[in-house]
From TrEMBL:
This is Nucleotidyltransferase. Keywords: Transferase. It comes from the Bacteria. It comes from Brevibacillus formosus. The keyword Transferase applies. GO terms for molecular function: transferase activity. Residues 183-236 form the Adenylyltransferase AadA C-terminal domain. Pfam families: AadA_C (PF13427). The lineage of its organism: Bacteria, Bacillati, Bacillota, Bacilli, Bacillales. The keyword Transferase applies.
Length: 263
């Protein structure tokens, strides 16, 4: 297997691909990894196992039930299976994003969902195109993923204004450690990606953004690292309300770097 795949994850992926080929050999085109593993940023205690499994065609109800059973069996065999996040996408739909896709099967925290929409956007396809890992099937290059960087940038700006800007108006969320970490880590990666036209692991993005943003943001960024990696250490902020307000201010700052076209 690719050297970026942690030794701890390899038995799970081997089991997964073996089950797929044993039970659905005529349907599966290939299994591919994106996300933290592909970006060489996998963290043993935190990271998800992000995958796209490509199909030759749509699935029958019987085949969907088979997939559900496969994922249940994986969870029974290996606790890491609960960190699998992925989608089952038809080969003809490579490069398409959720608004242009019919509902498809997906896996959320290891749990199989027979139909819906999940993490299929231009960022997904770009990471797969540039750094994806073929666990089983033809090479990444053979997929001819059409996504361009412009598509990625527009997706990230959309995310900033249509997800984070509204979220930032609710201070209550940011009284919680998890929301502070999620906001800062995600927005640092968006910032770094849009400035440098590159997608890197979130931790690295926070650490590099610390070197680039004005010093007024350093305390918040260091606090997000503390939450994720030293949760038992005391907060760098005097109280949660001050920290929540600073997180809201950071969201507004990042949004302001790339003004919405409607503003």
């Amino acid at each position: 297997m690719d050297t970026r795949i942690s030794e701890s994850v390899r038995p799970l992926l081997h089991n997964y691909t073996q089950r797929l080929m044993a039970e659905l050999p005529d349907v599966i085109y290939g299994v591919y990894l994106y996300g933290s593993i592909a970006l060489s940023g996998f963290e043993e205690d935190n990271s998800d196992i992000d995958f796209v499994t490509l199909l030759h065609r749509g699935l029958t109800n019987t085949e969907i039930e088979t997939l559900k059973n496969i994922h249940q069996a994986l969870q029974n065999d290996n606790p890491l299976a609960k960190r699998m996040d992925g989608m089952y996408i038809k080969l003809d739909d490579i490069g398409k994003t959720n608004p242009f896709l019919e509902p498809y099967p997906y896996v959320d925290n290891g749990t199989f969902k027979s139909s819906g929409h999940y993490d299929v956007n231009h960022v997904t396809w770009w990471v797969l195109k540039q750094q994806g890992i073929a666990v089983m099937g033809k090479s990444i290059e053979a997929l001819h993923i059409p996504t361009q960087w412009f598509d990625v940038g527009e997706t990230m700006k959309y995310n900033v204004h249509n997800y984070w800007s509204p979220k930032g108006k609710n201070m209550v969320k940011f009284l919680l450690d998890g929301w502070v970490e999620f906001a800062v880590f995600t927005l640092c990666r968006i910032y770094y990606s849009l400035i440098h036209e590159d997608i890197i692991p979130k931790r690295k993005a926070v650490e590099l953004t610390l070197q680039e943003l004005p010093s007024e943001w350093h305390l918040l960024l260091k606090e997000s690292l503390r939450i994720r990696y030293q949760p038992n250490e005391p907060s760098l902020f005097a109280n949660r309300i001050k920290r929540a307000k600073e997180t809201q201010r950071f969201i507004r700052y990042i949004c302001g770097l790339w003004p919405s076209k409607t503003e």
